[in-house]
Automatic annotation (TrEMBL):
Residues 33-188, 224-366 form the Sodium/calcium exchanger membrane region domain. Coiled coil: none annotated. The gene is chaA. It is a multi-pass membrane protein. The lineage of its organism: Bacteria, Bacillati, Actinomycetota, Actinomycetes, Pseudonocardiales. It is found in: Membrane. InterPro entries: Alkaline_pH_Ca-Antiporter, NaCa_Exmemb. This is Ionic transporter y4hA.
């Protein structure tokens, strides 16, 4: 009865974020039974789908690639806050939580989102077209920051173990901010056309669609932006609520603790995955790549500076260096990604390769 009355005044896309945040408040910090955990998972999925809807409304108003940037940036900011919160609480695996989460996000976006988007897009349309200039620039930034922040700590000698010294960590944080800032300027201002999808005739898909579709009003856009933030808070917060059940399941299965970070990254990246797949099915592969590489870049470029600052108060060492098998996967992903992006055209083969790399990452995370 209450829901029926609410729907008279508010659409479902407005009710779901509010309901999800209420569920988050009621379940935060409490021991949950498996039945409640299942309900929370359903609410989380609904909030993720609604977040994609509101992100598309905002994107229609501000245009691409700003729309992709809004979704990637919003998710990453909340994800960083979640990482810091979990590291502050301590516990097993907290010292390497930032590394595990960032690396998992990079593998899921560069292989999972890219591979799934390419495969679905090419199955429907035969081939996938995109701008190699923009995608290549984004990929170069991701590989650079991943190497500086996650690979180098394994080989530095100032501190024992895969850990930066204070000055090295400061440099990595500053480099991350500089690279991310310059990339955002390039993507949104200086070379915005590099990040817009094109047809086989070289015409901008976005320009054609926007010419025939009236953008939403300013009021509706601001409302969608607010609901987007509420939905993303619910998605990340409910992922944190689910984490004790995930940890219990991981321990019961005998998996390494790093699997917890992988599962949480999978949950947090649901909105971007759904948005990327929907764009691919509309023949907007460039938007899918913007979301994937933009999310990976934001995850590294924003997490490392915040963690570097927070490390002054966090207990224990900050372990950032990847293990040998993880570095092999990162190197192989980088090479395959370059070969995918450079031609500006992809087939089912490229999509399949990336999904195979994702499967290898998940297998080695479970059975290192």
């Amino acid at each position: 009865m209450v829901i029926a009355r609410l729907r008279r005044w508010l659409p479902l896309t407005a009710i779901v974020p509010l309901l999800a945040d209420v569920v988050l408040i009621l379940t935060w910090g409490r021991q949950l039974g498996w039945g409640v955990v299942a309900v929370v998972a359903v609410v989380l999925a609904a909030a993720a789908l609604v977040a994609v809807h509101h992100a598309e409304v905002v994107a229609h108003r501000v245009g691409e690639p700003f729309g992709s940037l809004v979704l990637a940036l919003a998710v990453t900011v909340i994800e960083v806050a979640l990482i810091v919160t979990m590291m502050t609480s301590g516990g097993p695996g907290s010292f390497s939580l930032a590394r595990d989460t960032v690396f998992a996000a990079a593998m899921i976006t560069m292989n999972g989102i890219v591979g799934l988007s390419l495969l679905l897009g090419t199955v429907r349309y035969g081939s996938a077209l995109f701008n190699p200039e923009g995608s290549g620039a984004a990929l170069a930034c991701v590989v650079t920051l991943a190497t500086l922040s996650l690979v180098l700590p394994t080989f530095t000698t100032s501190r024992p173990g895969p850990e930066f010294s204070a000055i090295q960590l400061t440099f990595a944080a500053m480099a991350s901010l500089v690279v991310y800032g310059v990339f955002v300027f390039t993507q949104t201002i200086r070379h915005r056309d590099f990040f817009l999808p094109v047809t086989s005739a070289g015409e901008s898909v976005i320009a054609v669609e926007e010419a025939h579709a009236k953008p939403p009003s300013l009021g509706r856009t601001l409302a969608s932006l607010a609901l987007l933030i509420l939905a993303l808070i619910a998605v990340v917060g409910l992922a944190k609520v689910e984490s004790p059940a995930i940890e219990t399941g991981v321990r019961a299965a005998g998996f390494p603790h790093a699997v917890v970070g992988v599962v949480i990254a999978l949950l947090v990246l649901v909105p971007e995955t759904v948005a990327a797949v929907r764009s691919a099915l509309r023949r907007r592969i460039q938007i899918s790549l913007n979301l994937a590489y933009g999310s990976a870049l934001a995850s590294i470029g924003l997490t490392i500076p915040v963690i570097a600052l927070a490390s002054r108060w966090l207990p224990g060492p900050l372990l950032l260096g990847l293990q040998p098998s993880q570095m092999v996967l990162l190197a192989l992903t980088s090479v395959v990604s370059v070969l995918t992006v450079v031609p500006g055209r992809a087939t089912r083969l490229q999509g399949t390769l990336h999904l195979v790399l994702l499967a290898a990452f998940l297998l080695l995370a479970i059975n290192p």
